[in-house]
Structures are given as C-alpha cells and as structure tokens.
Design goal:
Elements lengths: L2 E14 L4 E15 L11 H7 L45 H7 L1 E19 L3 E20 L12 E24 L2 E26 L10 E28 L3 E12 L8 E11 L13 E15 L2 E2 L5 E2 L8 E2 L5 E2 L12 E14 L4 E20 L9 E24 L3 E18 L9 E3 L2 E3 L7 E5 L1 E4 L6 E8 L5 E8 L7 E7 L4 E11 L2 E11 L2 E3 L1 H5 L44 E3 L2 E12 L2 H6 L4 E15 L23 E9 L1
Antiparallel strand pairs: 1-2, 2-3, 3-4, 4-5, 5-6, 6-7, 7-8, 8-9, 9-10, 10-15, 11-12, 13-14, 15-16, 16-17, 17-18, 18-26, 19-20, 21-25, 22-23, 23-24, 26-27, 27-30, 28-29, 30-31, 31-32
C-alpha cells in the first residue's frame, strides 16, 4: 500500500588556482518515488479516519450468516466483506468499502526530482579584502497520480476517478559579496557589502477524469468523463537585494554588530516594492572585567542585547496557496471566451509585512566548566500583517481585499542548561535541559473587525486576545432528568447585548459562544536529555514535555457522538446517561439527536511527557579498530517515539501546535540498528 525509494547524489570540487584565487562547485540531487495513502480528511479512503470510525462489529471478511464461517472463493481465498446488500447486507456507515481491498486497488504516487548546482569564485586582494560571487540553481519537479478504483469506495459511484498533476519549479540566486577584515592590537573589525538577485518560476498542470471501465487502468485516456477540466498556471517572482554589515570587538570583551538591507519584490507595486530593514547587537563579556576576575566559579559570562527587523513578502489565499500579483486585477477566461471577475479586489498599496525582534539575555559557563547555559528573553512584534477585509458585494468584483491591517506580539523566555553531573575516566553523566514559555497577543485588527472580531473555526480573533484562544460553546454537563447535554446561554437585553446573566439550554443551536479559558499555548514546554558513558558504551534518553495548554480533539468528538448507526463509539460511551437520576458527563445515546456540535466538552488538556528517543551505542576501542584496519567503528540501537504519556489515553496533543487534531499519521515508534564505520 505504501513505499518509498530514494536515490541521492552529491559532489563538490574546490580548487585553489593561485594564492589569491580559488573556485569551486557543489552539486547535489535526489530522485524519489513515494507510494502512499491519504493521511488527512474524512474520506473513507483515509485509513486513519476509516479505521477509527468503522464500527468494530463489522468483519473484514464475508461470513456465513448461519455458521459464522469465513466464505472463500473458488481459489480458497477469503472473500472480503464490502458491506453490500449482495453480501451480508448494506452497512449504514461506509457501505461498498473495505480498506483491505480498496487500498490494493487504489494508487497514490509521487515522483520527485530535486537538483542543486552551486559554483563560486573567490578572490583575495589588498591583503584584507575578499570578493566572492556565488550562483545557485535549483530545479524541483513533482509528477503525481491519485487513482480511486472503479469498484469500491468513494469513487465507485462515478466508476473510478484519476487526477494527474505536474509541478515544476526553478529558482536562480546570484550574489556578490565584498568582505574586509582587520585586526590591530586589541581591536578586531570586519565588514561586508553585497548584492543579490533571485528569480523564481513555477509551472503546474492538473486534470481529473472519471468513468474508468477497466480496473487498474489509471491513465487519463481511459476515463470517459472530464470531472475537472485540464488547468495550468505559471507564476514568476523576482527579488533584488542590497545589504551591508559590520562587526567590531575590543579585546573580545566589548562586541558590537550592525547590518542593513533593502529588498525589492515583484509581488508588490513599484511604489511600495522596496523594504528596508536593519539590526544591531551588543555584547559584553563581563567575566573579563576586573571586578569578576577573582570570582573562581565564573569561567565565562556574556551579556547580550540585539534588535532586528525583517520583512515577509509571502502572500497566501484562504486555502494556503501562494499569491503573486495582488496589486493587479486579473480576470479569468474559459475556453468559450467568457471572463470571470477577480475573486478579490487588487490592492496596489499592499506592502511588506514587518517583523521586529528584541532579544536580551546572558550566556555563561560556571563551576570549572561543569555548567553551561543561556537565559534569553524576547519581544517579537509583527506589523502590517496581511488580512483579507470583506468588501461590499455591490462593488461587483471580489468579496474581499488584502490589506496591511494586523499586528501581533509574542513575548517569552527561553532557558538552556547543560550540567556535567559526573565526569570520570570510565564514567560520565551529563544532563541537558531546556524550557521555554511565551505569550501571544493580537494588538491590532482591521477597523471593521475590531468590535466583533474574526471568527474562524474554533477561534475568534480579537484585539487583546491570542491567536490560539478557543472560542466555543461552553458545555455545562448533562441533565440528570433527561440525559441531554447542557450548555450556557446568555440572557440578552432589549438591544441584543448580554446582561451578564446566563441560563442553561439543552438546544446546542441556542447556546452562546465564549472564550472558554482555553489556549493552545502551553504554560511551558521543553526537553531533557540524560547522557551516560561507561567505558566504550553510551546511553542517552531524550524526553520532550509540555505542560498546560488545551487542544480540541475532533477525533475523540467523532466517536463520542450521540448516536450514529454503524459508527464506532469510544469506550467512554459506557459512562453515558441511561435513566433519570444518573449523574454523568456523557449524554444519552439517541439516533439523530440534533445535539452534535463543537463545544468545550472536547477541549482537552494538552500536557504530555514523551520519551522521544533512546539510543545505546558501543564504540570499538581504537587499538582493536587498528587491528582490523579501521579508523573507528560504532554500533548502535535506537528507538524513536518510545512512549508518550498524555492526559487522555489515545489522544496526541503533539499533532498540531494550533490545538486542532486531524485524521493523519500518528508518530511512528521506530527501531533502528546500525553501524558507523570509518575506513
């Protein structure tokens, strides 16, 4: 059902032609073929969704309804049950499907080719100067086929479906950099100035047909119905950049750096095409000051401060597709000479998004180099964020316009520590620890959305709130009398505004939405590594963790329904309400209850502790390696994703930092045996 083959190539040549001239070239490439599965969405062709939703009472193989024995075909092979009337009866969920059979009949394949070609020339002159020019060429191609068979599953009703697509991308980067460096006495100065050109071009082609008479014939010529007419596109983007920077240090004690760059992007109109961004940094190696030189437990300590600006030119539509020409109106034509208006209005004033980061902290090495660490605080602000603002439909061209009208702030702290607990001739033990915490705040929204906010799925974007705050109906438990789910509902005044008082309702369509006190951002997160060495053996454990934060478990919600024939139920449904007086937080079961909907009931604790990696290795002693004519050898066994502890068994809060789950690949537990041989 799935497979992966990959071939890679890498070569590099460096030549020093003279004392002042050197040149080189780096070439690498990869070709791979991927045969895979759908790993997202709610189609029955997604095995992760299908296997979770299918009721466990339905067999994989057709059985004799009297004896229960598995029915076999003329060749003695067991017959798969596709849930049809002609077999054991039509299933109420996912009839005419069986993944064991359909995955073998379907085909999802990608063939990819990626190559890089990077030559350079470097000239040294006037003792302190170097000039280097580099050319970077990248080519990336993907040919993809998605075929759903004509007998069973999602495409059986259209006699099979095939989509063929091709995507080709080419980029060219050329830069020229002049560097200068000088050291005299306790002073060290270096500077650079450069120029860069970048060009990107992509071409894509796609078509879909249905009506395939013969199984396994996946070429589009075998289809009879054009479901999605052939479509193609070509996009081109260019950028030109100028940049400069300088670094200065005095006695390696006082450090200063500064840089400036200006970039011009073809994605913006000519009068707003260029963006300028600068940065600077300060460092003070305080451990070298006289007042700390006699502090024996401080080996090294540096205080640092940096401020930097950067720009973002990437523009996306609501579906996450890149946009290239939003400063112009583009009309779309079909093969009949008809023209469709733009899906959104052009904005010739659209410009760069701007990111500003202020970082300050300390680096240190203490206690005769047994403890190393950094503590860093940051304040990162993004302004002129590109939002789609709705426009009056009466304009007649597009329902929205992209504008630079958003601002977001992220503040936080990051701590990294490493400590050599034991350091002996035959035994070492080192602990590495990191922890971070941050806060996200929306500081500006478009004027038209400031009062009511922007609702998107389980979120509502509001000034003063976070992008990661959940906006849901608030679950209030289960009625002991009726077994129905209860929700909070605001009491409104004559102007339709909440009075601050609430009542309970068992009609989810009348329930009010709130910030339910949940955010996908954890209180803190990080990792811990314990590394041990005994003679030639090494053992390490990597733990990753997250504490606090919530995630909306749509997977759990889908199998905790109120009643849907043929669909699986979570074991928690055993705790459901069954008779008046029952006290529980699981509502009663009933078919077509009308109570389904997103609420805080499925907002779960996202805390976890993951045994991410365990590695045991043995290094061959050097004297033994020499006897077998080796420079060294190491043998190892490795386990990735060994085990995860979560607040809710079976849930995976790591799946998405946004706090929303999907029917996709779970993390694989991978066992690896290997050896590293040095000849």
């Amino acid at each position: 059902f799935s497979g992966y083959k990959r071939y890679t190539f890498r070569a590099s040549v460096d030549v020093k032609a003279t004392k002042y001239l050197k040149a080189g070239i780096n070439i690498d490439g990869a070709s791979d073929r991927r045969d895979g599965l759908f790993a997202g969405g709610t189609a029955t062709s997604n095995p992760f969704y299908y296997s979770r939703q299918m009721g466990p009472i339905y067999p994989v193989y057709e059985r004799n309804l009297t004896t229960g024995a598995i029915i076999k075909d003329a060749n003695g092979n067991p017959v798969l049950d596709f849930g049809t009337t002609a077999q054991m009866g039509s299933r109420p969920y996912a009839a005419n499907s069986n993944l064991v059979g359909t995955l073998a009949l379907d085909k999802r394949q990608q063939k990819r080719l990626n190559g890089n070609f990077n030559p350079y020339v470097e000239v040294s002159f006037l003792k302190d100067f170097t000039f280097r020019t580099t050319l970077g060429l990248n080519y990336f191609a993907v040919d993809a086929l998605t075929y759903q068979n004509n007998q069973y599953g999602d495409a059986a009703n259209v006699q099979g479906r095939a989509t063929v697509s091709s995507d080709y991308q080419f980029s060219l980067t050329a830069n020229q950099i002049l560097k200068w460096g000088k050291s005299f006495k306790k002073h060290n100065v270096s500077a650079l100035a450069g120029h860069e050109n970048y060009k990107y071009k992509s071409n894509s082609l796609s078509a879909t047909k249905t009506g395939f008479a013969y199984p396994g014939q996946t070429a589009l010529d075998n289809g009879t119905v054009v479901e999605s007419p052939p479509s193609s596109s070509e996009d081109i983007a260019t950028m030109e950049s100028y940049f400069a920077g300088v670094n200065y240090s005095y006695d390696e004690k006082y450090l200063v750096s500064a840089s400036l760059r200006t970039d011009g992007s073809s994605k913006f109109a000519s009068h707003v095409r260029w963006g300028s961004f600068y940065s600077f940094g300060l460092g003070w190696r305080i451990s070298q000051e006289s007042f700390l030189k006699n502090v024996n437990w401080i080996d090294d300590m540096k205080i640092k401060l940096s401020y930097g600006e950067s720009g973002n030119e990437e523009i996306y539509d609501e579906g996450g597709n890149k946009l290239f020409y939003q400063y112009k109106d583009y009309y779309y034509a079909d093969g009949l000479g008809n023209f469709a208006p733009p899906s959104r209005l052009a904005n010739p004033n659209l410009k760069w998004e701007k990111n500003v980061a202020l970082n300050y902290g300390v680096e240190f090495t203490l206690f005769k180099r047994r403890l190393q660490g950094t503590i860093e605080l940051y304040d990162r602000r993004s302004s002129d964020l590109i939002f789609g603002r709705p426009v009056d439909p009466s304009i007649g061209a597009g329902s929205s316009i992209l504008e630079n009208i958003g601002q977001i702030k992220n503040t936080g702290i990051e701590i990294q520590l490493g400590y050599n607990v034991v350091k002996r001739k035959n035994f070492d033990w080192r602990v590495d620890f990191n922890i971070s915490s941050f806060k996200n705040t929306i500081t500006k929204l478009p004027p038209g959305q400031r009062e009511k906010g922007i609702i998107s799925g389980t979120r509502k974007l509001m000034e003063g709130k976070s992008v990661y705050d959940f906006w849901l109906r608030e679950f209030a438990g289960v009625s002991a009398a009726t077994g129905k789910a209860l929700y909070y509902k605001d009491i409104l005044d004559n102007n339709g505004k909440p009075t601050g008082n609430r009542v309970l309702t068992d009609d989810i369509t009348l329930a009010s939405y709130y910030y339910v006190g949940g955010s996908a951002i954890p209180k803190f997160m990080g990792g811990i590594t314990n590394s041990f060495r005994y003679k030639n053996f090494d053992l390490s454990f990597l733990f990753t963790y997250s504490y606090g934060g919530r995630f909306y478990d749509g997977n759990y919600s889908s199998i905790m329904h109120y009643g849907s024939a043929g669909t699986a139920l979570h074991v928690d449904a055993k705790n459901r309400w069954q008779k008046p007086g029952d006290i529980t937080n699981v509502p009663r079961l009933q078919n077509a209850s009308g109570q389904e909907g997103a609420s805080s009931r499925f907002l779960l604790d996202a805390s976890y502790l993951n045994i991410k990696n365990i590695t045991l290795s043995y290094s061959l002693p050097s004297n033994v390696a020499k006897k077998v004519h080796l420079n060294g050898a190491q043998f190892f066994v490795n386990i990735d994703n060994a085990y995860i502890f979560t607040a809710k068994k079976g849930s995976d809060p790591q799946q998405s930092f946004s706090g929303v789950t999907g029917a996709s690949y779970p993390p694989f537990r991978t066992f690896t045996l290997g050896a590293t041989i040095k000849l």
